[in-house]
Amino acid sequence: MTISEIFSNMDWGLAPENDEHAKSWLKENKNEFGHFINGKFTDAKNHFKTKNPANNQFLANIAVGSKNDVNFAVKSALNAQKKWVAIGGHNRSRYLYAIARLIQKHSRLLAVLETIDNGKPIRESRDIDIPLAIRHFYYHAGAAQLMEDNLPNQEPLGICGQIIPWNFPLLMLSWKIAPAIAMGNTVILKPAEYTSLTALLFAQICIEAGIPKGVINIVTGDKSELSHQLVGHAEVDGVWCWSDSNNIAKVETISAMDLKRLWVHIDGDRDWLDSNQGEGLEFLRNATEVKNIWTPYGD
Q1: Mean pLDDT across the chain
Q2: Would residue 11 count as lying in a domain?
Q3: Which pLDDT score is estimated for 51?
Q4: d(Cα 168, Cα 166) in Å, to the nearest integer?
Q5: SS3 for 55?
Q6: Is the pLDDT of residue 299 over 50?
Q7: Cα 151 to the chain's mean position, in Å?
Q8: What is the pLDDT of residue 294?
């Protein structure tokens, strides 16, 4: 028998990254998700569809967040934050280690889900994104244990709002959540509209890891509306936001009203003084007003 005849008679099995596991997980959740707030998924009235960008096939209905959802998430994060700080860095590290191990356990599902939701090659999801996400939680688990020694007299910021982009959904989530909770903060994360699925699977991992309710909250929906709600909320202590230049300008203007901590990543370039590019001038006006503080000198 020739080599070509041998190969022609071979039956090829499914690749390890076959998407049936991911489709089964979606089906288990009835292809519909609410927000993850206060340790459990909520019911949602309004949804939008997320699809596989490679073939335009429907994947799931994702909840559209509202002001009420943000208020609920903030209340949950606020109630959890003092208790989360009180358990100490060593105990917080145990939760981060648990998350890291569970991401490893579900790594194949996460990789395939990332690919069918985001459209990136499976090799990138499997060999880069998921392993790096795992490493971040392991690293910051160690950082939590060393916090009291390495960062003496430092306190957590409080409640952190996080608006992340679509290009590295789970990895960007890990970059933002892991250091925040390691240092004693609680978080409200808003994933990108059309790449929310791995964040929602991550929410289930948080339940499996026993993360105290309210420490990690995930609200899905419109980036502009939810970023404005988070930045404008008096109980939110800081926000990291990735968005287009016009929305970032509005977010910065809102944050200047109460001097909220803000970290931004602008998708594209912006000229601060171009009146056609959002509210840059208005932000600068508000930002400079707070500098007019009289400070006494001398004895």
Answers
A1: 88
A2: no
A3: 96
A4: 6
A5: coil
A6: no
A7: 25
A8: 45
Per the structure block, which two tokens stand in for 275? 């009146």
The residues facing 32 across adjacent strands are 61
Q: What is the DSSP string of 150-208?
A: HSTT-----EEEEE--SSSHHHHHHHHHHHHHHTT-EEEEE--TT--HHHHHHHHHHHH
- Distance, in Å, from the CA atom of 92 to the CA atom of 211, rounded to the nearest integer, reads 9
Which domain range does residue 232 map to? Answer: 33-268+277-286
| Per-residue confidence band for 3, with pLDDT thresholds at 50, 70 and 90 | low
In a domain, 21, yes or no: no
End-to-end CA distance of the chain: 100
Answer yes or no: is 132 within a domain: yes
Q: What is the pTM of this model?
A: 0.85
Strand pairing class (36-37; 40-41): antiparallel
Q: What average pLDDT does range 260-283 have in this prediction?
A: 66
How open is the CA angle 259-263-264, to the nearest 5 degrees? 120
Number of Cα atoms under 13 Å in the Cβ half of residue 47 = 16
Report the candidate in 247, 238, 248, 252 with the shortest Cα–Cα distance to residue 283.
252
Separation between Cα atoms, residue 167 and residue 153, nearest integer Å: 36
The tens digit of pLDDT for each residue in 45-54 reads 899 999 999 9
